[in-house]
Amino acid sequence: MTIGSTASMVEEGLFFDGDKPLAARVDIATADFLLARALENVRARIDLTFGAQLWENVSQTRYVSGDYATCTFPSGEGRYTSRDEGMTFGLADEDFPRILEIVKEEVEPIGYDHMIDSSGSAWFYVDFYNRADGGVVHVTKARGSGLIFQVNTGCRPWDD
Predict the structure, then answer these.
(1) Taking the complete model, does pTM exceed 0.85, yes or no?
(2) Is 34 contained in some domain?
(3) Does residue 160 sit within a domain?
(4) Alpha-helical regions (H) of the chain
(5) Which range marks the domain in which residue 87 is found?
(6) Residue 135: pLDDT above 60?
(7) Number of C-alpha atoms within 13 angstroms, CB side, residue 25?
(8) Is there a contact between 78 and 22 (Cβ–Cβ < 8 Å)?
């Protein structure tokens, strides 16, 4: 896991970019499936660790159901998915470091291994980027309030 700053990420490129050529990336169907499964695991582990949460805003749309957008990359056209993966209000600010450990343990094995922490006095704001293939797992928590997960696969190749 590498840790960077918001400034360094802007200089290096955005989550959508990725370092690999489009054709060399994990395809959109696989990337979308792996992200959905990882965030399901994150929510389940949070429930086990901190007690059952009332999860809201868990999108049921997936690439396989036709939910995607197109993107243009220098080496061709790709597809990406972007969605909410849960929101809950039952967690304390003191729980956030352990929540990040859980997220890291689930998303690092699928390539989201570059963490950017842009937290401030009002918000915890952390992104896990997949620098090779593109994409981001976004973790936000308003201090004293709700926790939100959002994901984006980044631009990926597809098979018809």
Answers:
(1) yes
(2) yes
(3) no
(4) 6-12, 28-50, 96-107
(5) 2-152
(6) yes
(7) 34
(8) yes
What 65-74 contacts at long range (C-beta under 8 Å, 24+ apart), as own/partner pairs, is 68/28, 68/32, 71/16, 71/155, 72/155, 73/22, 73/155
Tell me how far CA of residue 127 lies from CA of 25, 35, 104, 150, in angstroms.
20, 14, 10, 10
DSSP-derived secondary structure letter, 143: T
> Domain for residue 158, yes or no?
no
Q: Which two tokens stand for residue 80?
A: 């990406």
Kindly state whether residue 159 falls inside one of the protein's structural domains: no
Q: 67-118 pLDDT, tens per residue?
A: 888 988 777 899 999 999 999 999 999 999 999 999 999 999 999 999 999 9
- In the chain, how many domains are there? 1
- CATH code for position 91: 3.30.2030
